[in-house]
Amino acid sequence: MILVLGQTGYMGTQFINELEYRKLPYRGISRGNIDYTNFSVLYSYLTTDIARNNFELVVNCSGYIGRPNVDACEDHKAETIEGNVVLPKMISDVCSDVGIPLIHISSGCIYNGYDKTYTEEDPPDFCFKTNNGSFYSGCKALAEDLINKNNSYICRLRIPFDEFDNPRNYVSKLKNYSKLLNAENSISHRSDFVKACLDLFENDCPKGIYNIVNSGYASTEQVAQLMTKYNIKDNFSFFESEEEFYRLGAKAPRSNCLLDNSKLLSAGVKIRDVSEALEDSLRKWT
Q: Mean pLDDT in the chain?
């Protein structure tokens, strides 16, 4: 049985959908019914009547995200540390103690710049150590340092999107923002990401860090053009420069980078090209 923590969240609901599609036994919990943020509670839940539950995997989809964006994390630092550093470290410790592998949803927002395409071997350069990132990015990078990589799949999500309108969806954000910053980025189709995470586990791939992004990259302008093509929105307005973007509203530094997914592909996990995933999502936009 697979245990999904944070079952009602943006990624948690997609894991539940995929597990049901694969007909894999699962149990989803949220903090409202079981306080899995408490070490003793989670430990007892995983070990009590283990023959009946027989948990084979824990998927951690919980965490603190800024709403409407990462700027909110700058004003809620205690919650950001608790949800994105303390909690994943505790979940990793419990899973390691009881011998159950963990899938932890991390972020590709721990890098910035276009001097290279980042691999899993590259140390984060948009974090507390380099003192140039957002508070959110710093916490996500710190969590990767603390999680037991020998027992975990640390799966880096990067700017999620799909065909369903949602405040967390990259396309929805572009649709609702009055002005956009044009930048090139690796991005992750939500369903493709979840499928890849579960494929890593089901195929018994080596544990460790994986950049789970669609192959290739997309610019803001490219996505906006596709949105116009499929009548989602037109008349996009762009900032003249990154300096204007920060001067007129953004509080936290933003990550813009390209991630290499060759480690994922070499492990035998398939994922679509970004252009195919974008076209498919915008054609089916709901």
A: 94
77-129, pLDDT tens digit by residue?
Answer: 999 999 999 999 999 999 999 999 999 999 999 999 999 999 999 999 999 99
- Helix, strand, coil percentages in the chain from 3-state DSSP, rounded to 5: 40, 15, 45
Domains of the chain: 2-161+187-214+260-272 (3.40.50.720)
At 49 the pLDDT is 58
Q: CA end-to-end span of the chain, whole Å? A: 32
Residue 60 near residue 91, CB atoms below 8 Å: yes
Task: Count Cβ atoms below 10 Å from residue 159 Cβ, excluding itself.
Answer: 20
Paired tokens of 277: 């995933």
- Residues 110 and 144 sit within 8 Å (Cβ to Cβ): yes
Give the separation between CA 219 and CA 241, rounded to whole angstroms. Answer: 14
For residue 26 the two structure tokens come to: 């699962």
Phi-psi domain of 30 (left: phi exceeds 0; alpha: psi -120 through 50; beta: other): beta
pLDDT (tens digit, 9 = 90+) per residue, 214-249? Answer: 999 999 999 999 999 999 998 999 999 888 988 876
Asked if 181 and 238 touch (Cβ cutoff 8 Å), the reply is yes
Separation CA 57–CA 65 (nearest Å): 24
* Chain Cα centroid distance, residue 237: 27
